[in-house]
Amino acid sequence: MDRLPAAAVAVAAEAEAAEEEDPLAADSPVPQVSEQRDPEPGRMQMLQGNPLLLPHSLQELLAKDTVQVALVPERKGLFLKHVEYEVSSQRFGASVSRRYNDFVVFHDLLLQKFPYRMVPALPPKKMLGADREFIEARRRALKRFINLVARHPPFSEDVVLKLFLSFSGPDVQSKLKESAQGVGDEFMNCKLATRAKDFLPADIQTQFAVSRELIRNIYNSFYKLRDRAERIASRAIDNAADLLMFGKELSALGSDTTPLPSWAALHSSTWGSLKQALKGLSVEFALLADKAAQQGKKEENDVVEKLNLFLDLLQSYKDLCERHEKGVLHKHQRALHKYSLMRRQMSAAVHSQQPEAVQQLESRIVEQESTVQTTELRHAFSLYCLHQETQLVHACLPLTAHLLGAFVDSQIQGHKEMSKVWDDLKPKLHCLFTGPNST
Question: Which residues belong to any copy of the PX domain (predicted)?
Answer without folding.
Answer: 63-171
